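Aggregate trends can hide what the representation actually does to any particular protein. The sequence in question and its structure tokens are set out directly beneath this paragraph.
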Amino acid sequence: MEKVNKLYFPNLTGLRAIAVLLVFFHHYNQILNLFGYKGIPLYFIDSSGEIGVLLFFVLSGFLITSLLLHEEKITKKIDVKKFYFRRILRIWPLYYLLVFLGFFVFPYLGIPYLSTYIFEKRDFFFFFFFSANYVLFKGIVIPGIAPLWSVCVEEYFYLIWPWVIRFKKFLIGFVLLVFFFPILKYLSEMNRIDIFYFNEIFQLFPFEGMVSGGLFAYLFFNRSLLLDSFIFQKLFQVIFVSVLIFVFVTQGINFPMYRFIYSVLFSYLISNLALNKTNVLHLEFKLLNYIGEISYGIYLFHSFILYVGLVLLKKIYNNSDNFYLSNVKHILISLIMLTFTILFSKIIFLYFEAKFLKLKENFMVVKSTNKK
């Protein structure tokens, strides 16, 4: 096996943990509501799931592009075939494991809501061929495996993006095309028209997060921005982080073109965390890194754990359909469920996922790491 070069990115594993926690607590509230219970009374949790997924998208675009550019710098080329093999070994094993469970196991467990789905060959076909986003777009939510929609979106992006980076003459055109979509969607909503099924295309292929992350990685790699003189200055960072937190907590996703705006904001945040030695945020904590390293498994399996956990909770409360959960109880219950989700995901990682990640190393040229 060829020597693998390492690319050190501090803080990003911790940021990945924050992204998956945003999704977890959103679905915690959502599934509680399904069971007739009130969720955590925090406004921003209603939108934290979508924002968490968007943060994942931006992280993915930034990391993938950085690795491709460093590979090109070292080897003078981008091996797209190796790139595809790396993505397959990273994504497909857990994806297909959850597809199998979602269609052939979960429906027969007798768990309320989780086991209500009636098998449809058409749905299985879409999930098998990475079109879960289409199923969800049509309003069909298959309990326990709904998060797979975002994995499908990433797979579409991975098919295209290495070629865009390899043949850079297409980069500007592709970026402009993707960034033009949110503007056109906003205009179509303002005028209450759908241009050439545009809204459908926009919902099925929300690439702006990944493209924004990739564009920032490209610009920073080529030093095309005034890094030290302006945007990496501590005062600017403090202002930026304060604005980002304020918008998230008070507005959520209730403003026009929020996906595009968050994509740009997250891209700047990620660039600072990964590349700025004087950044004001520090996410290098053992617990965050631990969660971040198994975040893919947590993201895929947390819904299943929540369904099971809430069934047990309902039994504890004698199957009552209406009882009050204090903030203290919410904290305890959510942390217990999060702990079981982490343990379950760690087991999956050690005894299933890690075997494929080991094979993935055979196709690595550059490896991203949070350790020097």
About this structure: The CA atoms of residues 109 and 115 lie 6 Å apart.
